[in-house]
Design goal:
elongated; 75 residues; mainly alpha; disordered C terminus; 0% strand; 2 helices
Length: 75
């Protein structure tokens, strides 16, 4: 069995999920800057706010520090 056991495995999964959420956030931020998404800009802003809330809650729930992330995205 691996060094950390199930708890470490779950933490690794949580970090992987958080990285996926950050990637989605980055994609939405890019879309906000593109003229072809102008017509749905308010929707994208709402999605971004909701995603930020989920990321913050998820980070607090699992007590994840920024330095634990593989892709530190400062977008």
């Amino acid at each position: 069995m691996s060094q950390g056991g199930p708890k470490t495995f779950r933490r690794g999964r949580a970090i992987a999920i958080l990285e996926t959420l950050n990637l989605k956030r980055s994609t939405i931020k890019q879309q906000l800057e593109q003229p072809e998404f102008q017509s749905i800009q308010q929707i994208l802003v709402g999605e971004l706010k909701a995603l930020d809330m989920v990321i913050n809650e998820f980070t607090q729930l699992f007590e994840i520090q920024e330095n634990e992330m593989k892709n530190e995205d400062s977008v």
